[in-house]
Design goal:
heterodimer, A: mainly alpha, 47% helix, elongated, B: two-stranded antiparallel ribbon, globular
């Protein structure tokens, strides 16, 4: 076995690097000399094997066969399904994600129901709270005979839009909708309505009575 | 520019002509790289053919001669290593007679020793890290022309030289341990 301190130098030297310290040591150490000789002999065998590579030749019909294989492979139709699977899967994923997003997304749009003109007045729903005052804003400049229409925050339900109309305002609403529809000025009119807060009637102050808190538990009420 | 449609793959005529030139120019190189790993002519030809089929599919991006040869060497080497690891090759090798350098032998006993040594050396070369092994093989194929190997690997010549030295040093190390293992058995 070679000396441990020269092991690395031995392989370096066998690979062809100069190693002065090792060269000075070799005349005094038989083991290191033997090991170096073995490594050199084995490397020579490796070189001999590798030296055969430039002489290795393929068979005589290798190149014609290669050419034929390339032509044949080029002529073979690529499996259409194979390369389309990833594209199909991606598309399906996008569609599914979009569908889920559309179904689950809460709609907060404030919409003016302008697609009503073809609907007869009777089809409009009756007010649910006839005695209540106008819900949000009443326009003061529309004249007394034609009470202004209401913009109402509604959740858009594609199948059956719902419009709540105060009593006696159905006809006026229809006329307004027809006007808007005819003039194609939905955005203009809505913008104008929002732009002048001075023209809007304010709601009367709401009086809130002090709240009396009464415990529900009779035992507590009776003090026992 | 005229285009030839062959099945699903199309290459324009100029590209086809260039590919034909590359095939003629580099088929032997691909074979030798594969052969350095597989040591079996039939397998080496199969692997080289597969490398050329892949090259044909990607030819538009590797049409430059140097780039093509570099790509071909790397691809063939990797394919050969994969092939070597595959079950198909393992079963076929049992009956195969490897093509090796002819060795002059004086006696049956010497023949047995040489054969054992060659097997050990082949095992040691095969166990080298891939990038060192590839450099060693290409230097042998290109007959010690380091500049040519540097072009094939798209590396600086100094890097090739240093890798070659590391490869030989590692090989010497491995051979040393193989000899010790054999001696202590």
């Amino acid at each position: 076995m070679a000396c441990a301190r020269y092991r690395d130098a031995l392989s370096e030297h066998a690979a062809g690097s100069p190693a002065p310290a090792l060269e000075a040591h070799l005349p005094m150490c038989v083991d290191c000399r033997n090991e170096l000789a073995v490594m050199r002999r084995m490397l020579a065998v490796a070189d001999q094997q590798l030296a055969y590579l430039p002489k290795a030749e393929p068979s005589g019909n290798f190149v014609p066969q290669l050419r034929a294989a390339v032509i044949e492979a080029a002529a073979r139709p690529v499996s259409r399904v194979a390369w389309r699977w990833p594209a199909l899967a991606t598309t399906a994923g996008i569609v599914l994600a979009f569908a889920l997003f559309s179904v689950m997304r809460p709609s907060h749009e404030i919409t003016a129901q302008v697609d009503v003109p073809s609907v007869p007045a009777s089809a409009l729903t009756a007010p649910r709270e006839p005695a209540s005052p106008p819900a949000i804003v009443a326009r003061a400049d529309r004249g007394t005979d034609t009470p202004p229409p209401r913009r109402r925050a509604t959740r858009r339900t594609p199948a059956e839009p719902e419009v709540l109309i105060p009593p006696g305002e159905a006809q006026a609403l229809l006329q307004w909708v027809a006007l808007v529809n005819r003039e194609h000025r939905v955005s203009t009119l809505l913008a104008a309505a929002d732009a002048s807060p001075s023209q809007t009637a304010t709601l009367a102050n709401i009086e809130i009575k002090p709240i009396e808190i009464v415990p529900l538990d009779p035992a507590i009420n009776s003090g026992t | 520019m005229s285009t030839v449609w062959v099945g699903a793959v199309s290459l324009d005529l100029a590209l086809e002509r260039e590919f034909e030139m590359r095939l003629h120019d580099s088929s032997r190189l691909a074979f030798r790289v594969a052969f350095s790993v597989l040591r079996q002519r039939e397998d080496a030809e199969d692997v080289a053919q597969e490398a050329f089929l892949r090259a044909h599919r990607s030819f538009a991006s590797i049409r430059d001669r140097e780039r093509f040869r570099a790509w071909l060497v790397r691809t063939t080497f990797r394919l050969a290593l994969d092939w070597m690891r595959g079950e198909r090759q393992r079963t076929r090798r049992q009956d195969a007679v490897a093509l090796e350098a002819p060795v002059e032998v004086a006696s049956t006993e010497q023949d047995a020793v040489q054969s054992e040594m060659r097997a050990q050396v082949a095992q040691a070369v095969a166990s080298l890290p891939e990038k060192l092994r590839l450099v060693m093989v290409l230097v042998a194929i290109e007959e010690q022309d380091l500049a040519s190997v540097a072009r094939l690997l798209e590396l600086p010549e100094g890097t090739v030289k240093s890798r070659l030295h590391r490869a030989r040093k590692e090989l010497a190390e491995r051979l040393r341990w193989l000899v010790h293992d054999t001696a202590t058995r």
